[in-house]
Specification:
alpha+beta, Beta-lactamase, 3 domains, 6-stranded antiparallel sheet, 5-stranded antiparallel sheet, 13 helices, disordered N terminus, disordered C terminus
């Protein structure tokens, strides 16, 4: 009798979407998904996308597949989230409102009276927390928070408010910074500190960290870093409508409100009626995006996604370094969504083993070519052409199994190993200073690099900054006995 009661209790919790073990694993077939569909999705990603970094797929609360492409290890090591960060800020706002420390219709001017510009206009005084959440700030289309100095809240509030707040959608990361600053002002804690006991700790997000403004406030609209497993737990928690292991961390009503369409979305005045096939025109929520197929997502630049699929009871979390973000989502709709059946499938041990092996062996190929060549290379200092990252020069020396690279960046000179036929790991600092303005890469970053001589005798170098979405990719060519940087191999050269 006792066993029957316990079984019924467990079944009730399972039906409600609770996840007793944060990363409990199961075969895809046991959760109604074919391993072949997941393999086909991986094949499509590798064929059509460059570069995927890591993924976790959950169904019915269980991890049915996960992997990371070496030299990345996004399952265990933190990775930039970019605007995916916004959805965590939204969550903190929801918790603050439920603690009665903030109200969605509260005027931002009342929260920051000391940050308002002289003679603040009526539009600015009418901006509500709700308007920041929905990107209906009404501000001019210029991102202001690009300086490592200054008061970012005052700078954001000094922007021209072109439209009446609440009436015009324009994506604006400055709005999210103001939300992050409001959390700090009302709770006395940063958003990361505030969420640690309320969300991060309970659902198993342990490695999260964020860059901050000069005032020590997390950037909000970008700057957070987490593993793919951690953002997938966030997705599962959202799918559970705020519940985890029997605890309701925020009300179901808030999750439903925060992930529902709150405003039309689009770019340049175009809306869903013009682009029904696009996942950017389905509507904007409270720092989440609606998707096609009645799904929604947390969304960050270069392909950082947590896609929540309520009708399929599934979550797909992705880390990447891509230009084609629409294709990244389309491959999910094409391969994974239709594969999610309503009942378990017959187990296929051979196919399941093949998927497990494939996930464990994912890798970005190192540079192909010869280890020998280029008598001109050792010790030659090669200057970079002008580039937006400010890379200055590079020098290579032969070393066992590869080379040693010494590279000058705006932050100084750094030495790291370069592998032949493999990725070798080291560290480099790209941008000086301690404030991550938008698109900067600050601090000591892990780098994995590989190189070889191609058939023309050019030295091809490729590197990934494995905590970020970017890298370096270039050739060194000897002309007249002098080495120089020549044409690029891919678009991520000086990204």
């Amino acid at each position: 009798m006792k066993k029957a009661v316990l079984a019924a209790f467990a079944a009730a919790f399972a039906a409600r979407g609770f996840c007793e073990v944060p990363d409990e694993k199961a075969t895809p077939e046991s959760q109604g998904v074919s391993s072949r569909a997941v393999l086909d999705w991986i094949d499509a990603c590798e064929k059509k996308l460059k570069y995927m970094h890591g993924f976790v797929i959950r169904r019915h609360g269980k991890v049915i597949a996960e992997g990371s492409w070496k030299p990345f290890d996004t399952l265990n090591e933190t990775h930039m989230l970019y605007s995916h960060s916004k959805s965590f800020v939204s969550t903190a706002i929801g918790m603050l409102t439920e603690e009665k420390k903030l109200d969605l219709d509260e005027r931002v001017a009342d929260i920051f009276p000391d940050k308002l510009p002289p003679n603040a206009g009526e539009n600015l005084r009418e901006v509500r927390i709700r308007d920041l959440l929905t990107m209906n700030f009404g501000a001019a289309p210029d991102h202001q928070l690009r300086s490592a100095g200054g008061d970012w809240a005052a700078t954001a509030l000094a922007k021209k408010i072109e439209h009446r707040p609440g009436t015009f959608f324009r994506y604006d990361s400055d709005a999210t910074y103001l939300l992050s600053a409001a959390i700090m002002r009302r709770s006395g804690q940063t958003v990361m500190e505030y969420l640690k006991p309320r969300l991060f700790g309970p659902i198993g997000i342990e490695k999260a960290w964020s860059t901050c403004s000069p005032q020590g406030i997390p950037c909000g609209g970008w700057g957070m870093n987490m593993t793919t497993r951690e953002i997938s737990r966030f997705g599962q928690w959202l799918l559970n409508e705020g519940a985890w292991n029997g605890r309701q961390l925020v009300s179901r009503d808030w999750v439903r409100l925060a992930t529902a369409k709150q405003t039309r979305s689009g770019w340049g005045g175009r809306h869903m009626e013009d682009h029904p096939e696009s996942d950017w025109y389905q509507g904007y929520c409270f720092q989440f995006w609606r998707c096609r197929h009645n799904c929604y997502r947390a969304d960050g630049a270069d392909g950082q996604y947590t896609i929540v699929m309520p009708e399929q009871d599934a979550v797909v979390s992705l880390h990447a370094g891509l230009d084609d973000l629409a294709l990244e989502q389309n491959l999910v709709w094409e391969h994974l969504l239709p594969a999610m059946g309503k009942a378990p499938l017959a187990e296929n041990a051979e196919l399941s083993a093949k998927l497990s092996e494939r996930c464990a062996s994912l890798a970005i190929a190192p540079v192909a070519g010869s280890a020998e060549g280029g008598a001109w290379l050792p010790g030659a200092t090669v200057a970079f052409p002008e580039n937006k990252r400010g890379y200055r020069h590079v020098r290579f020396e032969k070393a066992p199994g590869g080379w040693t690279c010494r590279m000058a960046t705006p932050a100084g000179e750094f030495e790291f190993p370069v592998g032949y036929g493999e990725w070798r790991k080291g560290f480099v600092t790209i941008d000086p200073g301690g404030v991550e303005c938008l698109n900067m890469i600050i601090g000591r970053q892990p780098i994995a690099s590989s190189a070889a001589f191609d058939e023309n005798g050019d030295f091809v170098f490729r590197a990934h900054l494995t905590g970020t979405t970017t890298g370096m990719d270039f050739k060194l060519t000897a002309t007249g006995g002098k080495a120089r940087v020549t044409g690029t191999v891919c678009k991520t050269v000086f990204k």
